[in-house]
Amino acid sequence: MTKVNNEKLYKLVATAIFSAAVVVLTLTMGMIKIGSFNLTFALVPIVLAGVFFGIVPGTIAGFAFGLTVFIQCATGLEPSGHALFVINPFYTFVATVVRGALMGFLTALVFRGLTKVIKNMYIKAFAASVLAPVFNTGLFLLIYATLFNPQMKEFAAAEGASALYLLFIIIAGVNFLVEVATTVVVTPPIAVVLEKTVKTEK
User: Fold this and answer.
1) Which of 62, 78, 176, 185 could form a disulfide bond with 100, CB atoms 3.0-4.6 angstroms apart?
2) Are 36 and 178 in contact (CB under 8 A)?
3) d(CA 136, CA 104)
4) Distances (CA, A) of 157 to 18, 141, 146, 172, 173
């Protein structure tokens, strides 16, 4: 019983640490820009939480990411997100908090499947590092195109671009590439190091 309780406490503490790292990275590194796009490392602890501690911690870390972004949107720290919040706070909650939690959940879920066929940690972590931005951007595109479709078309018309071009190329395309690059470069080496010291989810 003591061993079980210790393992639960260990996982709880680890989940809190990774979630706190997500919040800090979202609030700090998110302020670093490449052109008009944020340089973010916030997906790294989300991936690591799912890799080493399973689906629930991965989901919680993703939730922490989404909640932080939502608060930024609500308070105006994220100007483009604040514009969406003014239009519809609930839709913005779905586009941030729900999306973040789903991203963490799906990344951890797929990683668990990968562990059955791939043993090399670097390869598994690399795959998860690609999947997290894919899920994050894919869910964003789906939610934005569905819930904010009128606003997307209106903004596209004002910019003289098609809604499809605006959504996939301007809004998501470059940001997706930045997310993939930062997550893929940073996460696998950290995962390889942590594999030697961290008790993983079985």
Assistant:
1) 62
2) no
3) 9
4) 41, 18, 18, 18, 19
